[in-house]
Write a structure and sequence with these properties.
Keywords: Membrane, Transmembrane, Transmembrane helix. This protein is an alpha/beta fold. It has 14 helices and 23 strands. It starts with a helix and ends in a 7-residue tail after the last strand.
């Protein structure tokens, strides 16, 4: 085809030149006297200019046709028609011809197959239900902080059921190997990567590559890679429930943004923050393992690890799937307002546990976390779930946050107000105004007569198929003022010192369509109140 085009253009050139000569000889406007050498030179220059212009047109047209009909271009054209997995969809990636995957038409699927089935060659094999053995954890740690931070990991790690590693920048000296913790891995050298952010730290490069290094270990039967920090606390039962909603054979990126509006504005509102946990499906981890090192070289100005990982996942075209149970917890101070108003979703994780006050009064930070995780293990599915019920006779509102606190408010407060988090904390940057937080928040009650009586978890146990929690009345520094200024309506439940909460197990699929739990209260004695919590019955309001 190229030769035919060139022959046609050559013939066209000859015809034009011949016509030009004939026109030059016969034109009455341009006679050619013999004695006019100047006129002859002028005509020769015009003929030369025309010849050069036509030759340039011929060359450029030939080059354009060669580009359009070349094998490489045809390869990329066909790959763009079948976009997924194409190496040509990134402008900086070299186009390599490849064989397109054979797609099984829907009519060829065996009866009963669903999206939860995986293709294995030409056959279709039913996928086993997701469990902890299908998840590999990549925990970002620091050698300098390991001695203290490992105690947080110990609270939730299950050595016999889980796989994963703690990734440090250098080896630490251990007196003896601790089988209750995940094994330690030393990250690869990152000194050859560029890092130009003036306020960050190059460790972000190392941590961003944990997903790549974890994938390259070649562990078998892996569906998800979950990334987190060494000060993250996980509810692994709920993690499995949440991930089981998704088809792990697709590229999926799961997590949650920050609670801080400033942090989300600086980094991205569509970025998963790693402290709260990031879940990456196996196909996405595979793609990242191939492009990550080349990708992060394009972003030397970024601050840390999460934004680098997000940048590379964005290049692959994968959006964030936001799960509300992952919590970055970019807060400081008293976390009561967040713990007592967990969203109606399975609790999966919290972070920055060293930056907040102890959860339970009278306990150290570590002891509080031990009680916290004990309650979480006792009933992981309903842990931190809310329940609201009323005693209209005594004009009281009961707000139960399972595993943490029971609040008794001295008036009727509607759920819309209680669902908003009481702002007892400040953001990571120290700002505590409501517009600093990217969730519904409310100001604390200014009047001491409206503030609730708090009953914090003291202990928990399992009896039969139900869990029991003992919540003990907390002393308030304003109790004396309340007795004087709030008389005669305060204090409510003056003699009650303990509230016993019985929780009925939630259904297996509660996490798929969650609803706030229902409760009812009854007096068990002068100093003890009992509250029963469970799923609301159908048609219950």
């Amino acid at each position: 085809m190229h030769i035919g085009v060139m022959v046609m253009m050559t013939q066209t050139l000859k015809t034009i030149m011949s016509s030009y000569h004939d026109y030059d000889k016969n034109s009455p406007l341009c006679p050619l006297p013999v004695g006019r050498p100047r006129s002859r030179q002028w005509r020769q220059r015009r003929i030369g200019t025309l010849a050069v212009a036509i030759a340039a047109l011929l060359i450029s047209t030939t080059a354009w046709l060669s580009l359009v009909f070349s094998d490489a271009t045809t390869c990329c054209f066909h790959q763009l028609k079948d976009w997924e997995g194409s190496p040509c969809f990134l402008a900086w990636k070299k186009c390599i011809p490849h064989r397109l995957a054979k797609v099984t038409p829907p009519s060829a699927l065996q009866p009963g197959t669903t999206k939860d089935h995986l293709h294995n060659g030409s056959s279709i094999v039913e996928q086993e239900g997701l469990s902890l053995k299908h998840i590999v954890f990549g925990i970002a740690g620091s050698s300098q902080l390991w001695k203290r931070r490992k105690e947080y990991i110990r609270l939730w790690w299950r050595p016999n059921d889980m796989r994963g590693h703690v990734w440090l920048e250098e080896q630490v000296l251990e007196e003896h190997e601790d089988d209750l913790l995940p094994p330690i891995m030393i990250s690869e050298d990152i000194s050859y990567f560029r890092y130009t952010n003036p306020i960050g730290h190059p460790s972000g490069l190392r941590i961003s590559r944990i997903v790549r290094e974890s994938f390259r270990l070649g562990l078998s039967d892996v569906r998800w890679f979950v990334l987190c920090d060494d000060d993250t606390i996980f509810n692994v039962n709920n993690l499995v429930d949440v991930l089981s909603k998704y088809n792990s054979s697709e590229m999926i990126y799961i997590g949650s943004p920050s609670e801080s509006h400033s942090a989300n504005t600086y980094f991205s509102h569509s970025m998963a923050f790693g402290g709260g946990g990031i879940a990456v499906s196996h196909p996405l981890a595979k793609a990242l393992s191939e492009i990550l090192d080349e990708c992060i070289e394009r972003y030397p100005k970024l601050y840390g690890s999460d934004d680098r990982l997000h940048a590379c996942i964005t290049e692959l075209g994968i959006p964030l799937t936001w799960e509300h149970g992952f919590h970055q917890w970019d807060i400081r101070g008293d976390a009561h307002g967040l713990l007592s108003s967990h969203p109606i979703a399975p609790f999966v994780s919290i972070h920055h546990v060293e930056a907040v006050n102890p959860f339970y009064p009278g306990l150290s930070s570590l002891d509080s976390l031990k009680l916290f995780t004990k309650a979480m293990r006792a009933d992981p599915k309903s842990f931190l779930q809310r329940s609201i019920c009323y005693d209209y006779a005594r004009h009281l509102t009961f707000s139960v946050s399972l595993g943490y606190v029971v609040q008794v408010l001295p008036n009727i407060v509607f759920p819309r107000e209680l669902e908003r988090s009481e702002r007892t904390y400040s953001a990571w940057n120290g700002i505590s105004q409501r517009n600093e937080f990217d969730f519904d928040a409310r100001d604390p009650y200014k009047s001491i007569c409206k503030r609730p009586i708090l009953f914090f978890l003291k202990d928990t146990k399992i009896e039969g198929n139900a869990s029991w929690g003992s919540y003990v009345r907390s002393r308030d520094k304003d109790d004396f003022k309340k007795r004087i200024f709030c008389f005669p309506h305060f204090p409510p439940l003056r003699n009650v010192q303990e509230i016993q909460v019985a929780v009925q197990p939630l259904s297996k699929n509660w996490h798929l369509v969650p609803r706030r739990l229902c409760c009812r209260q009854s007096q068990a004695g002068k100093e003890i109140l009992q509250v029963s919590v469970g799923e609301c019955g159908k048609g219950a309001f």
